[in-house]
Amino acid sequence: MSTGSKPAPGATPGPQRVASSVNREVAVAAPGEFAPLRLGEGRVASSGVVEVWPPVVLAPMAGVTNLAFRSMCREYGAGLYVSEMITARGYLMGNRLTALLASSSPDEQPRSVQVYGADPVDLGEMVRSLVDEGVDHLDINMGCPVPKVTRAGGGSAIPCKPRLLARLVRAMVQNAGEVPVTVKMRKGIHEDLLTYEAAGRAAEAEGASAVGLHARTAAQLYSGEADWAAIGRLVEVLDVPVLGNGDVWESFDALRMMRATGCAGVIVGRGCLGRPWLFGELAEVFNGREPGPPPAFGEIVEVMMDHGQRLVDLFGETVGVRQMRKWTAWYTKGFRGSAAVRGRLMRIESLAEIRSIVADLDPAEPFPETALRAMRAKGSKVQSVKLPEGYLEELDDDTPPKGPRTLDEIEAWEKALNGG
User: Fold this and answer.
1) What is the rounded CA–CA span in Å between residue 377 and residue 270?
2) CA-wise closest residue to 17 among 284, 208, 227
3) 4 lies in a domain?
């Protein structure tokens, strides 16, 4: 696979590490300390095994991990870059947005797609079609905590019923051939209803090649600290690789997580929003090198413009610019004076407006250390998880929950769903 060739901006080593206090003394990887992540080893033919180095995966995120952003992250450093989640029904019905979210480019190798489906027949048909298209890796979303989804018994509600989870994973594996299938889930519904161990065992038994664990419950959403000890517990329970997800804000967090838990790889979500160069820093530390400082503001403006153009190329001018609005807030987070211009950035009608709006900000300002762990999306709220009435009374039931059927329902779900 490609090793990536684009260096992180500001890659010249500086006199002092730019890191939060918890990471200032963390050592870079020693030679041979970490192995490449090998998805499918022992489960699919050797020609289907996907080797990932560094062992870093871009988390599937709704409205984020489309081809435009994936291509940027891939250029900074090798790894595995997963698509936005796509619904089985939308894909099978030929929904235009679903097809666009699933789209790739010839140089995207390996190609990785996350799917959502609660009907084994739909999942099997979708998987066969994606494999025929040349997809190299498939992941299924069983971690989405959004009420619209869990209220119907989908997303993070599915692992409550290991037999249902097993049925869905089985449908994917049986139709995937040599393509490895992985599962992404959360710890459980809340701290009194943890499902990840039983669900992980069920996924492994049905042929899943790895299990990704976002170490929070559905009730937590994205609040509080991720429970890395749960990742370590799942490593003890399963024989297949476990991928840890939660609170990887800096490259050194990934090293700390793998050292603390023994997981085979890390999944990076919110930490890379507005910071695609994080993957360059991850490549550096896993290869035993000290990363250079993050980019200064002027360099970030150029990254923003590049990102905006890629979005326009993918979605067209109107939708691409509209999508770029939220990204301008993430890219400028923490810089002096950025709060005063963020409102205007969120109303841009063309990419050219970005340069004029930020023209008075200092292009030489270094990346703020305070922004390394700043929340860029999804706040600190918690929730009471919505489940179908009586859902927890029949945990052995493997009846698929009701999912979206019409094109309008599918589009509404795709806007609500996220990678969990």
Assistant:
1) 7
2) 284
3) no
In a domain, 390, yes or no: no
- Start-to-end C-alpha separation, the chain: 27
Annotated catalytic residue 160: no
Q: Which one from 144, 160, 263, 272 is the annotated catalytic residue? A: 144
Specify the CATH number for the domain of residue 314.
1.10.1200.80
407/388: higher pLDDT: 388
- pLDDT tens column, 231-253: 999 999 999 999 999 999 999 99
Residue 225 sits in a domain of what CATH number?
A: 3.20.20.70
Query: Which amino acid would we find at residue 406?
Result: T
Query: Within 292-394, where are the H helices?
Result: 297-315, 317-332, 338-345, 352-357
Q: Are residues 305 and 266 in the same domain?
A: no
Virtual torsion, Cα 232, 270, 149, 111, nearest 10 deg: -80
pTM, whole model, 2 decimals? 0.93
Residue 11: inside a domain, yes or no? Answer: no
Beta partners for residue 39, in sequence order: 50
Residue 169 lies in a domain: yes
Task: Grade residue 103 by pLDDT with cuts at 50, 70 and 90.
Answer: confident
The answer on pLDDT for 353 being more than 70 is yes
Measured between alpha carbons, how far is 155 from 401 in angstroms, rounded to an integer? 10
State how many domains the chain has. Answer: 2
Domain span including residue 251: 34-293+407-416
Report how far residue 104's alpha carbon sits from residue 108's, in angstroms, rounded to the nearest whole number.
Answer: 7
Q: How many separate helices (H) and strands (E) can be counted in the chain?
A: 15, 13
Quick check: 36 pLDDT over 50?
yes
Residue 100 banded pLDDT, cuts 50, 70, 90: confident
